[in-house]
What we know:
Protein name: Tetratricopeptide repeat protein
Number of strands: 0
Number of helices: 13
Radius of gyration: 26 Å
Pfam families: TPR_MalT (PF17874)
Low-confidence stretches: 258-272
Keywords: Repeat, TPR repeat
CATH topology of the domain at 185-253: Serine Threonine Protein Phosphatase 5, Tetratricopeptide repeat
Strand content: under 5%
Structural class: mainly alpha
CATH architecture of the domain at 185-253: Alpha Horseshoe
CATH class of the domain at 185-253: Mainly Alpha
InterPro entries: TPR-like_helical_dom_sf (IPR011990), TPR_MalT (IPR041617), TPR_rpt (IPR019734)
Shape: elongated
Helix content: over 70%
Amino acid sequence: MTTHAAQQAQIYLHRGNLTQAQYWCAQAVDEARSQGTWDTLASALGNLGNVYALLEDFQQAEACYQEVLTIQRSQENPNTIGETLANIGNVKADAGDYTKARAYYLEAIDVLTATENHRALGILYGNLALQEIATNQLENAIGHFTYALDFHRMVGDEVSLANTYSQLGQVFLTQGKFRQAEGCLNNASEHFIKLGNEPSEAAVLRVLADLYNKKGDTISAVRCLERTIQIDIRYQLPERTNDFSQLSEFRKKNPAPQAGIPPKLKKKTNPP
């Protein structure tokens, strides 16, 4: 049952008022401890942990999640256990403790693989790939992003497909693997177009422009930035000034040909 405190917490969270959300989440935890069920307490603690994570109070967030985990282990619900392990991994990652984050992610993957929770597994493999990037294990990151793509396809998660293709493309670009990077980034762009998410499409096009510039294909780089600037103007994106500057630099490398004046045609005369 949703309590008044829990309702207030959700209202303030949706408004972005994290201070008030934290206060009401704490109230919901107190209510659950005094008169709620184990499930109610786990839910309230989980919400409080989420707010602490948003506030970047990672120690308090982990304390909430660890208590949730203790409750869930006693209830023997693998799906919720796996999700909480992933949350602890996220907190560890945000705090920069990548070794422990990886350990929690791997444990969560073991739990959720047994339950065939494909949606959660796609997210987890993506998170694990990001940790590999942070520790410069790029080949491992590529493998984990590939697993993530497989799970996103299984559940039809278009948003996660688009984001993962974009992240994988950037890894390939870092390695100088232009062909693989271009394929992934174009896939990401197509998914964002399908979703109608133009700001994210613009973010991918900026990376594609960089890729084409590094390949020496300034014509394609210019085309990417021209489309990006259209989106910048439509949404008043903060990257607009830099995109205009970048486009100007690319055009200097490959100036448009000047339109010539066609020669006058000689008037034909009839043969005698």
